[in-house]
Amino acid sequence: MTRPINFHELAKLSPEQRRKLQQRTEADLTEFEAKVRPIIAAVRDEGDEALARFAREFDKAPVQANGIAATEADFAAAEKALDPKVREAMEFAAHSIRKFHEDQMPEEMWLHEVRPGAFAGDRSLPIPSVACYVPRGKGAFPSVALMTSIPAKVAGVKDVIIITPPGPNGRIDDATLVAARMAGVQGVYKAGGAQGIAAVAHGTQTVPKVAKVIGPGSPWVAAAKRLVSHLIDTGSPAGPSEVIIFADDTVDGALAGLDLLVEAEHGPDSSAYLVTWSRRVAEEALAAIPTYWAQMGEQRVSFSSTVLGGPIGGIVLARDEDDAIAFCNEYAAEHLEVLAKEPFAYLGRLQNAGEILLGEYTPTTLGNFVIGPNHVLPTSGWAKTASAVSVFDFLKRNSIAYVTSKGYPELARHAHALARYEGFEAHANAVSPLRDRILKR
Asked: What pLDDT is attached to residue 441?
């Protein structure tokens, strides 16, 4: 049974009604944080025993404390069981992902002469360790394993692990294990949800403590990340999927409807809007969507129907082009797909999105799997200040400075004046004649 698809006309909405369209399922994590705290405490205190217990309780998976880590036998069985066509597609995707992120790598170090005799620059180094979180609640996502672990390896991170929930059979998804080996990752652990985040923040008997955790997840994962952020770098927020299909009056509305379902099928907590100022496009999309549902399975129809008929989904008819662009920029979607015969005409005005996919031949599906840019993107409006996962998430920068004896006097004179003004006497002394006398000895 599908829900009626929402049809929002912005011109008829009050400011409060318009604001509600911008909300996300993660707007308030207070309820989740209260439930997650005891899970984190249990993992901190009990380690693997808690991970196994929560796997049995939450994942309905027969996991024991001595079976948290994937074994060589698990990897071998996964290689044997995986459909060759799936493996071929994963290899194709891995090549694109690796190539894109290799091209993204910055210079290891640069120095510019900012003043005569004074040089300043940056040096980029890999972080020491990272856990890549691969969700599994509504399916299996080997693409997430590739998208998170390959950039980490390209960046040069020494210790890269994957944590992921076990399936009902107590095993890790075959394709995820194969993806791990494609990326060069050796350690994969049955540790999903809040308990997985707690495991890599505190460390257990089996799961190592790491410097950073990255990857998308449920509100439980988001709440856990927030609560352990004093122990571990939790990266950019990456929660339930969200998309805006921005369509002008040059495209077929049936195409807009087809693409609107891509992110809406992720789960009932997703967000998905078609934003257009063309009533024709809106009505064509509205008419086409039920025909696509007829070609989908019950679960994905249920998910996408819940989204498009719920409080944060549907079709949005803007007053005009300016109104549509303003809505998109305020929303700051994870995925923004621009359907237009001339999509570059809008690119300069579309500022806030995790990724922008341009044109009728660039559906979100391609971005999610095979083009190469990362599909782990900021959600919940964080695209206003945050970016897609990249090699930069796995690098840290040292600022580097070097001043010669010839460049020193002018810099010292101005630094001395500022130090005196701010009342820092040792600062001032360090660039005073005291230094000159010592260096001349």
From this structure: 76
Specify the fold of 30-237.
Rossmann fold (3.40.50)
Minimal CA–CA distance to 364: which of 338, 327, 343, 325? 338
pLDDT tens-digit map of 303-344: 999 999 999 999 999 999 999 999 999 999 999 999 999 999
Domain boundaries, the chain: 30-237, 239-388, 405-439
Q: Is 184 left (phi over 0), alpha (psi -120 to 50) or beta?
A: left
Q: Which residue matches tokens 């705290």?
A: 37
Which whole-number Å values give the CA distances from 426 to 207, 411, 421, 435, in the listed order? 46, 16, 13, 12
Residues 6+ apart with CB under 8 A from 84: none
Q: Considering the chain, what is the average pLDDT of its residues?
A: 95
Global pTM exceeds 0.70: yes
Euclidean distance between CA atoms 32 and 11, whole angstroms: 35
271, 312 contact by CB (below 8 A): yes
Query: Could you tell me if 130 and 154 are in contact, meaning their C-beta atoms sit under 8 angstroms apart?
Result: no
pLDDT band at 114 (very low <50, low <70, confident <90, very high): very high
Decide which of 3.50.30.80, 3.40.50.80, 3.40.50.1980, 3.40.1440.10 is the CATH code for 239-388.
3.40.50.1980
- Residue 64 DSSP SS3: coil
User: 3-class SS at 144?
Assistant: helix
Nearest to 93 by CA among 9, 12, 150, 10: 150
Residues noted as catalytic:
334-335
The reply to whether 30-237 and 239-388 are identical in fold is yes
User: Can you tell me the distance from the alpha carbon of 202 to that of 228, in angstroms, rounded to the nearest whole number?
Assistant: 9
